[in-house]
Amino acid sequence: MVITTKPATEASYLSELNQMQKKAVTHTEGPSIVVAGAGSGKTKVLTARIAHLLKENKATADQILALTFTNKAASEMRHRITQVVGNDTKAIWLGTFHSVFMKLLRYEANSLGYPSNFSIYDTDDSKSLIKQIIKEIDLDEKVYKPSIILGRISHAKNKLITPKGYAADPTYQKEDAYMRMPRFSEIFIKYTHYCLQAGAMDFDDLLVQTHKLLYDHPALSEKYQQQFRYIFIDEFQDTNLVQYRIAKKLAAYHQNICVVGDDAQSIYAFRGADIQNILHFVHDYPDHQMIKLEQNYRSTQHIVDAANCIISYNETQLKKKVWTANPMGAPIEVLKTMSDMEESRLIADNILAEKLNHQLLYRDFAILYRTNNQSRNFEEALRKKNIPYRIIGGLSFYQRKEVKDLLAYLRLVVNHNDTEAFRRIINFPRRGIGPTTINKIISISAEKMVPFWTVLGNVNDFLSGATAAAVARFVTLIHTATLKLEKENAYAIADYMAKASGLLKELHEDKTVEGLTRYEHIQELLNSIKQFVDHPDHHDPTLGSFLQEIALITSADKENSNEDSITLMTIHAAKGLEFKCVYLVGMEEELFPSAMMLGSKADLEEERRLFYVAVTRAQLKLTLSYALSRYRFGKLGNVQPSRFLKEMGWMDHMATKAMAKRVATDPLHTGKPMATQKQSNKPIRTIGPMVAPARLRIPTDPTAIQIGHTVQHLHFGVGKVLQLVESSTMRKAVILFHKFGEKTLLLNYAKLEILPSKQKAY
Description:
Blueprint (H helix, E strand, L loop, with lengths): L9 H6 L3 H8 L5 E5 L5 H14 L8 E5 L2 H15 L7 E4 H12 L10 E3 L1 H14 L9 H13 L4 H5 L2 H9 L5 H14 L2 E3 H14 L1 H10 L2 E4 L7 H10 L6 E5 L14 H4 L1 H4 L4 E5 L7 H11 L20 E6 L2 H19 L6 E5 L5 H10 L4 E3 L9 H14 L4 H7 L9 H14 L3 H5 L8 H19 L6 H11 L2 H6 L4 H22 L8 H8 L15 E5 H4 L4 E6 L16 H15 L2 E10 L1 E4 L2 E4 L4 H6 L1 H4 L30 E4 L22 E4 L3 E10 L4 E7 L3 E6 H4 L2 E2 L8
Parallel strand pairs: 1-7, 1-8, 2-3, 2-6, 4-5, 6-7, 9-14, 9-17, 10-12, 10-13, 11-12, 13-14
Antiparallel strand pairs: 15-16, 18-19, 18-22, 19-20, 20-21
Helix pairs in contact: 2-3, 3-4, 5-11, 6-7, 6-10, 11-12, 11-13, 16-29, 17-18, 19-20, 19-23, 24-26, 24-27
């Protein structure tokens, strides 16, 4: 059944906006940048602007391109647009960068030498291919670690460095040689070749190949420049070089590009995001209009004021003053504990008290931390109190082995050249086709320079007996399913393949708890395919369409936000979310800010932006905690409060109270004192005496480090510099550490401290 939505009147959707929001919505022509502070309603503005274009007939739906960073955000935007204009939103090119450009590449892949039904390799597929290449050219996987290789390939792609360009660059060759990976460029070249041969792209390729399509094919570039009259980019501060160049190319004709973002929330530099994109937009488009959304609708005044105080310490930023008309609310609370175990117990007790006193749900609470490994203590404390919780960022449903196995069968049905899908399921369930046979098939394919599926079709030319018969049956299985593609929907083919492959039977016969769980996961996958086919918005129920739909799904996209449980997640994962009560834990030096981010001003400012993001997730109550001792790397050590606490202003606004004499306040809504008790007007208060941060360990200037120096590293400890290697772009040191042996470190990132010469290195 199709649900229709009654369109809102023009007056209603514009009347809901404040003056600056309305200006951002109605100023539709030319380049514009909307600087949207935390909680300022940027999603409302972005969707209202798109709806306004449609209602004013300035563009048809297919002439609008809107790019986001999560499927959840894209879904929310489409829903809001539909509420204003009715159901005429399906033709809008709205989605994540990867999903939208995947759609574009499906139309134009042949121009790049790929089939339109190309497969998408996830991280596991890419690592598996890299392992095969390492084995093929007889390299040591302990030296050429697949995860490191894949990371370097991804970095090169996002810098638009081609495999041949990388191999020809003497600087990269020297760096690889020094890292004991002199044949990295050979792996890079083979990886790219095998992906093309398999008709597969990895996640980076979805951007890189779109860039290549637009910059190397002028006719296609002009086609899409003409089509997209209006371009929108959400969370523009998170774009990388490739994304920005694609957007700039597409906007070259009409120049109607609107970017929305907040430089204060740029926290993904480690993924290649470049804050300079938003800071330099004004230079790239000199005739731009800048609109600042500075009213925060999410948080109390205490939280907004504290966030402003935090971000004021950053020098690199677009200046704005976020404010709110919300009530003052509860003071920000800072909890000090003697240990990390006590920290988790105290917060579990605190959550129960807040929930009981103010009739809250568990889902109103979130515990945010800097690193995933901090979750363990909180999980244990919550379990002991029978408090339900969920962890965001765990294993995605679509990453489970049994789910990936069935999906591999379906991928091979759609794309016979998908090598990684073939490797995964050719002998699962077991059908008597061993590694020797599989490698022989792949080798013949490489030698004859033909797709491996062509080799399989002539199996009797190089195999005989039971093995040849098993391969032939496998080929028949895939061919039979392929014949169903044109006449049957995704569910019918998936159901057939789950049964005909023997996969369901294999899992059903495993009566262990784990086996039953895996069987249930396969049934859940089939259920999700049936839901996809039956959904009224899916006009293309084919298997290829389903595989495209799920190719870029993340665990966060599938989370059930209606589940009544506390949310545990990293601060990075919390971006874009909001909760009534937020607990920001582990507020200690070298944990937050991270020790790895103390070596440069740019890194420290990124950490401060991350803190700003964490603080602004809270709507009504913010609690920060730190411990005086914490287990790290297997040892209990003393730690110091984070410098960020001081930057929030707690030194000026603390009310030192012994824990037994805690001042109780109403933590929600008005911030008024509870009956018969007094409340401090200070925005931040503490439980227990606060300890000012001690002098921090300051890394030495890398240029000062010389051979023979005794140095200290955060993780490796004390060591002696044995050798220095210098080039035009980097400086490395070979250091002998007492506990970890010889290590080679990039000095610009190692954050070493020179110790007095009397300190023994080993």
